[in-house]
Amino acid sequence: MPLSPGAADGSCDDRSANALRGDVHGQLVQARDIHGGVTIHASQAPPPPPPLVDVSLDAPRPATAVRGREELLAALGSAMRAGAPVPHVLTGPGGFGKTTVAAALAERARADGWTVFWVRPGDVAAGMVEAAVEAGGPRREAEQVRATRHRAVRWAWRHLDAAPRPWLLVIDNADRPAELDPENRPGDQLGWMRSSPGGFVLVTSRVDDPLLWSPARVHRVGELDAPAAAAALADHAGLAELAGAEELAVRLGGVPLALSLAGRILATHGVLFPDAHALLDGLREDVGALDELAAPFVPVADADRGLLSGVWELSLRLVAEREPKAAPLLRILAVLGSGTVPVPLRRLPLSELAVGALGPLGEASFARAVNALVVHGLVTVERREAEAFLRLHPLVAETVRAGLTDADLPLVELAERLLDHQRHRDLRFELQALVAIVSLRVRMHPADEDAATARVGDLSVSLTALPPATLQTVVSAGGTLLRLGRPEDAEAALAPVVAAAEEQFGRAHPTALSGRHLLAEARLHQGRVDEAERSFRELHADRAGTLGPEHPDTLDTAYQLGLIAIRRERWDEAGEILSEVREACLRTAGEEDPLHLFAAQNLAYVTMRLGDPAAAETGFRRVHRVRERVLGAGHHLTADAAFYVGRAAQERGECAEALRIFTDVLRNWEEQLGEEHPQVETVKRRIAEVAEPGPGTTR
Fold first, then answer.
1. What sections of 295-444 are H helices per DSSP?
2. Which DSSP state fits 216?
């Protein structure tokens, strides 16, 4: 230890004796006079300073132009320049482009001379402290406060508030809001998310819960419209023009992540997919192929946010942290709500859900599960009058279904049982669900490749060696097509499945019998009355011999023979058959039995055609009262009974009353059955007739 020399004259100068120059290593003791021994207890060496945290605050750079977000970016830019009094939050499902919007705003901020801090999930605290250091906070102080959360928060915001240059702070993918503040709502601004006079705070999150973020300004980021999506797809493909871009963009639901993946596939695999039409053909039946083709572009570590399947699975994991029942519920909704028609909430009765694959489920836990899916952007709630509906984005539903395996078969079976609840109440909803179930069953238990095929909607189904449950689902889908007024499509689905069921299980098998009935009905609706009558007579004999004359299925076939007699205007025969069916149903099943009501309604129609519209109206009104009580005023079969009340009024010359009834029926059928349904055309013709009544009628 080098010391400074003493005075030249040998005397001891206090200042020079206590002076020290040079480096000191270890302990240093300075003393002037020492009397007696000296003992020095060496202390432990002070711990080395903690290593610097390696935090990147650089924003991602958009690889292409940001399409379809001009208004949102303009609103964010205006708020940023004006000095926002509250933070702003971008919410929406994963893969919908929240990070892309934030990155575009960061580019604009940087160009305007602002400092940009980009804080990533996983260690928000480290990113925030580092941002405060870059804003002017001493690193020594940062290291002292880093381990104490409350002190670190106050210290960081003190320096960010006083930063010499304006800044943009983006806290990206804050999908676990507790990371922003484990003790308070992020909107309370007591944690890492705060407004500041020093700059503009923007948070992105899948959690779309305004109460969580309030009073922050929340912007929901949704899918792109068709023109913007097509332009984004072409950008990612590196092309100024891309044939078929808009069709493929619509197929991908305008989801930015899907568009990005598709564009990269087109750019890389130009031989396989020379244009968007070619890739569209490859994705027509299975959107999962998009992930398979794009997987080489996405590092395994980034799959949670870089592939569609990973994005939705990450969302499910985040949801499950809040409510474990939410993940299986989403999978059921992905089966039921597979297309454009939302799932009516009343089609999810707790009595069925609680005994199925979801396990015990009370009203409160069901509500929490639905809410968890809603706030994560996986499901939206729609309301029509007094009813609530749950809607999944079609691409979310399709991607979730693509991930289902044999282990999920109980969920598929539960979804099919749910369709039996209020069967035929929502025909378009039921058809899309049945088509999805058929597709899943076939995928889980494939048939021979060279098997006969049936068309179910847009789905081609190979039939050989399929189990009875799958064939019965195809039969149910065919029956729904028939009720939707599509008898040709119903026949295309039913004819091959009947042949397959008869070949595999025999003509008396329940699937074969129910398929034969519906197939004959489809032919009857196409005007092939002779062919239908032969089929129904054979089927009636088979069912009566196998099931008995008063079995519901036997009576249903007899009822169809009564309708054929009406078609042929054999009124006495029709009246006799329908009376027998009505009485048998009343005796065995009661007044509310659907077949009893159909028979009673058509028996009243026979009475009207025989010249007694007053007596017929009494019968029609009786059917209408029962259906309204059992099914509700909005059911399309309740409207069907009302239509015949209107027909009786028309026959009696009461055109004003008939017009009022027909107008209400038209509104119901257009909503419930669709504008293309034949019954819609029928009631429109009746409206035209009563709107211009002939002589002897009243308005």
1. 303-306, 308-322, 326-336, 350-353, 363-375, 394-402, 409-420, 427-444
2. S
**Amino acid letter, 605:** Y
Q: What is the torsional sign of CA 67, 71, 72, 78? A: positive
- Rounded to whole angstroms, the Cα distance separating 280 from 177 reads 38
Is the Cβ–Cβ distance between 209 and 375 less than 8 Å?
A: yes
Tokens of 118: 């980009």
Q: How many residues does the chain have?
A: 699
Angle (nearest 5°) at CA 573 between 571 and 576: 105
Using CA atoms, how far apart are residues 267 and 254, in angstroms rounded to an integer? 19
Strand partners, 31: none
Highest mean pLDDT among 55-64, 66-75, 409-418, 495-504: 66-75
Q: Return phi, psi of residue 166, to 5°.
A: -65, 150
pLDDT at 149 over 50: yes
| DSSP code per residue over 670-699 | HHHT-TT-HHHHHHHHHHHHHHS--TT-B-
Residues 6 or more apart whose CB falls under 8 angstroms from that of 694 comprise none
User: In angstroms, how far is the first alpha carbon of the chain from the final one?
Assistant: 119
- The predicted model scores a pTM of 0.77
CB 366 within 8 A of CB 353: yes
Rounded Cα distance, 180 and 159, in Å: 18
Which two tokens mark 145?
Answer: 């406060």
Across-strand partners of 391?
A: 380
Q: Facing residues of 89 across strands?
A: 203, 218
Residue 573, classified by CB atoms within 10 Å of its CB into exposed (0-12), middle (13-18) or buried (19+), is middle
User: What's the CA gap between 330 and 591, in Å, rounded?
Assistant: 38
Percent of the chain with pLDDT over 70: 88
Kindly list the strands in the beta sheet with 199-205, ordered across the sheet, starting from the edge strand earlier in the chain.
115-119, 167-171, 199-205, 88-91, 217-220
For residue 643, which of 690, 611, 686 has the smallest C-alpha distance? 686
Q: What is the average per-residue pLDDT within 402-429?
A: 88
The pLDDT tens digits for 274-305 are 889 999 888 877 787 888 888 888 887 777 78
66 three-class SS: coil
Q: What is the mean pLDDT of residues 191-195?
A: 95
The pLDDT tens digits of the residues spanning 637-683 come to: 999 999 999 999 999 999 999 999 999 999 999 988 988 899 999 99
Q: Which two tokens stand for residue 475?
A: 């039969």
* DSSP bridge partners of 119: 171
User: Is 496:463 a contact under the CB 8 Å cutoff?
Assistant: yes
| pLDDT attached to residue 609 | 93
Does residue 223 sit in helix, strand or coil? coil
Query: How far is 263 from 64, CA to CA, in rounded Å?
Result: 11
Which of 476, 457, 339, 359 has the alpha carbon at shortest distance from 411? 359
Task: Estimate the crossing angle of helix 594-609 against helix 552-567, to 10 degrees.
Answer: 20
pLDDT for 206-238, tens place per residue? 999 999 999 999 999 999 999 999 999 999 999
CA nearest neighbour of 582 among 606, 553, 605, 556? 556
How many C-beta atoms surround the C-beta of residue 528 within 10 A? 16
Nearest to 689 by CA among 657, 659, 649: 659
Distance CA 290, CA 265 (A): 8
d(CA 557, CA 561) in angstroms, rounded, equals 7
Contacts of residue 271, Cβ cutoff 8 Å, sequence gap at least 6: none
Residue 46 — very low, low, confident or very high, per pLDDT cuts 50/70/90?
Answer: low
